[in-house]
Structures are given as C-alpha cells and as structure tokens.
Write a sequence for this structure.
C-alpha cells in the first residue's frame, strides 16, 4: 500500500468541547489512533497543521483535498474549517473519504446519512483501549478503500445524476507531487535560516526553480518578520509577488504591519492609510482594526506633546474598541483595548476596562491558554494578570512562555513589552509593584543568547 497517501482534516491541539466543560485532545487522537493505522498499512500520512499552517493561502490545502488518495475527516466539535474541507472533498471525489467522530457528538442532519466511524472519549481524552479500537476500525476501512470495496460516500455524487467528477490527469498529479517535495525541501531550509542574507538566497533559489511563492507565502513572511527585516519584506511583497498574492487580505495586512514596525512617524502614517484602504475593500475585520489601533498607539508613544499623546491614544482606543466589538473572541484586540483604557485613567475608561476583563478571562480559558504553545495567547494572559494585579499567576505564565520552543521572535516580545511599559508607567505613578516588567524584559536577552 506504499503507493497510497492519506490526508487528515481535523482540529489540532486541545480544543474546548462544544457545550461541555472539558477540552478534547485532538493530537492524542491523531498520534494514538489515526497515524498508527496508516503506519501499520505502510501508507504515507499528513495532517493539515503539519504543513505549518500555510493555509493562510489555501492552495496547498485544496490540492491535498482533491489529489490525495484517501482523506480522513474528524467531524467532532462542529469545526467550520473541517466542514468546509469536507465539502470540497465531497465535491471532488465520490468515495475514499473516511469520517470519524466522538460518539457523543450530535451530528448535523446533512451528515447523519453518511457512514462514519465513532470513537469514545472520557472527558476529552481517548483511552489506550479506545485508541486501539479506532485504529483497528480505520485499518479495516482503509483496506476496503484500497480494495475498491468502498461505496460512494459523497452526497452530491450519490444524489445527483451525472455530478461532474474531478478528473485527475496523471501529468498534473506528477507535477503536484513534485511541488510537494520542493515545498518540503524549501520549508526545511527556511526553518534553518539564520540571517536575512540566507533568506534572500533561498528566495533566489525559488525563482531559479520557478517554485510558486503561494505554497510558502506564510512562512516567507514570518521569516522576514523574525529578522525584523521590514524594508526587505515590503520590497518582497511589492516586487516579487504577483497581483493575486499582493491582493490577499493577509498579505496586505502584513505589508501595513511592516510599515508600522519600521517605527518612524511617516511610515506609521503610511500603515494607517493602507489599513483604512483594506477596511474599505475587504470590510470590517477585528484584525485590521487591531492593526490600526496599534499604529495609533505607536504614534501616541512617539508624540511627546500632551495633546498629541491624548489624541492618538483616543484614536487607538476607538479602533481597538471597533475591532473588539466586531469580534469579542479576538483576545489580542481586547487586551490592547483594556491596557489603553487603563492608560487613559479616567473613571469612565477604568469602568470600561473592568467590563472587558471578564470577557478576556473567558476567552483565555476557552482557548486553554495554560497548555498552549501560542505566544500571543500566553502574552495576553500575562498582560491580563498584570492588569488585574494577580502577580503570582503572571509569574506562572511567564514560566510557560520562557520554555516555549522555539522562543518567540524578538519583535513579538518587544511588542508585548511596549504594552507592559505603558502599564508600568501607570503603576509607577500609583506606587504599585513594577518588578514584573524586568522579569518579562529578560526574555529579550534570552532570545539573543
């Protein structure tokens, strides 16, 4: 069966179970049941997140869903991304899609007629015996797929006569597999890049081999950011990307962020103009509002006059407030809003801050920040505990951050420090403890070692 391959569409990490007080460890389901089934049969397998979430640009994910021999889809937890991926697969292939789910999941009406494999969890954890049962069921189902015994599992193909099947040309499939190999090679090089010059050399190599940037655009942008090479990132976007990539919302936002991070007054103003254009073209977005808020916050810090500081602080607050109102799940926008309301330091602003804090606490708990490897989530938790003066919990979170591997990029730590410095100034005026700031600042030195 070595000629076959499997793609897995499922949530990853630990996610809150719908309407329950526990979390589901999806990594354990994958590592203890799904992957062992493929390994037993000698079939290559990859899960979506193992591609380092290049899914910001969806080309790779869609090609996997269309071209992969077998797709396993975990429909537990009503994850909208997973259902979207399942829809693509069902419109591309009449069979060879295998559904699995936690048996306590209430399946949507449209999914109920499909033949799915249930598994059992105990408060979100799959036991060794349940994992073994799921593995064995998957092995048997995969064997039936390989032996062409698998019946039609796509409702469009089952219910609509002459539903158009995606015909996969062998030549195109070969090109697809070659691109995947190239991508894996370039991704490995990017992970080991130590300088901006090395990154530029890798990009030149991509050009020589005519490798499409879209397959690694997320990692390329992150690489520029890790070196704080803001001018180089802007040049890359403006001069290396085609119009389709340039016009992607994510790419536009990162270009505007680069202008903001350059740090001088003129560049920050350029960032604001770009972001306001994004709002007009793409509509409201908590991310875009948050980036505008960040730019005005930077202007407030740069402007030493009392009037300039207050004006830009108010503009930052208004944009963070719009972003948080648009999506209260956006903890990044929420924590910035809460911090700037503290800095404003009026009776009204402090009352608003106290209304936001419980929402932020709920978001953090919902996202299981205590077991997360997401720097921004943990940094938000730290900042929130400083705002609520729970210094013991802040120290605990700092310990989790300091053990992240790899450590977050220096620019990300400095971004958090900028907010913490604003809180520090307020606390100094009120004679409150500020030693926590030096502890967090030590992360910068640790990153440089």
């Amino acid at each position: 069966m070595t000629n076959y391959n499997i793609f897995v569409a499922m949530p990853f990490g630990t996610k809150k179970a719908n309407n329950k007080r526990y979390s589901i460890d999806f990594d354990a389901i994958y590592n203890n049941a799904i992957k062992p089934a493929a390994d037993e049969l000698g079939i290559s397998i990859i899960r979506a997140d193992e591609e380092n979430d290049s899914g910001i640009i969806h080309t790779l994910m869609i090609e996997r869903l269309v071209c992969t021999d077998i797709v396993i889809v975990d429909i537990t937890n009503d994850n909208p991304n997973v259902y979207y991926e399942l829809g693509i697969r069902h419109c591309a292939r009449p069979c060879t899609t295998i559904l699995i789910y936690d048996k306590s999941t209430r399946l949507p009406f449209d999914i109920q007629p499909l033949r799915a494999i249930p598994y059992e969890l105990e408060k979100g954890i799959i036991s060794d015996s349940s994992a073994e049962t799921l593995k064995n069921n998957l092995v048997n189902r995969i064997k039936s797929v390989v032996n062409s015994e698998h019946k039609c599992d796509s409702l469009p193909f089952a219910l609509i006569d002459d539903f158009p099947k995606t015909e996969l040309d062998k030549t195109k499939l070969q090109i697809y597999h070659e691109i995947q190999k190239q991508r894996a090679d370039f991704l490995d090089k990017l992970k080991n890049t130590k300088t901006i010059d090395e990154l530029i050399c890798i990009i030149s190599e991509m050009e020589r081999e005519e490798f499409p940037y879209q397959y690694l655009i997320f990692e390329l942008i992150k690489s520029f950011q890790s070196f704080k090479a803001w001018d180089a990132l802007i040049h890359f976007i403006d001069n290396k990307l085609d119009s389709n990539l340039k016009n992607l919302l994510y790419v536009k936002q990162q270009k505007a962020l680069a202008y903001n991070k350059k740090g001088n007054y003129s560049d920050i103003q350029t960032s604001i103009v770009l972001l306001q254009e994004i709002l007009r073209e793409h509509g409201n977005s908590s991310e875009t509002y948050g980036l505008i808020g960040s730019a005005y916050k930077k202007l407030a810090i740069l402007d030493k006059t009392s009037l300039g500081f207050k004006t830009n602080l108010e503009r930052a607050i208004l944009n963070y407030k719009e972003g948080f109102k648009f999506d209260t799940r956006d903890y990044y926008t929420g924590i910035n809003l809460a911090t700037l309301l503290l800095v404003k330091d009026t009776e009204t602003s402090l009352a608003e801050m106290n209304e936001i804090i419980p929402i932020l606490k709920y978001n953090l708990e919902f996202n299981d920040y205590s077991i997360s490897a997401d720097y921004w989530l943990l940094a938000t938790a730290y900042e929130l505990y400083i705002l609520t003066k729970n210094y013991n919990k802040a120290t605990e979170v700092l310990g989790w951050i300091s053990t992240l591997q790899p450590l977050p990029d220096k620019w990300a730590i400095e971004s958090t420090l900028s907010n913490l410095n604003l809180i520090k100034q307020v606390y100094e005026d009120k004679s409150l403890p500020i030693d926590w700031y030096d502890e967090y600042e030590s992360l910068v030195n640790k990153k440089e070692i």
Strands lie at 5-9, 14-16, 23-25, 44-47, 70-74, 97-102, 116-119. Residues 119 and 133 are 8 Å apart (CA to CA).
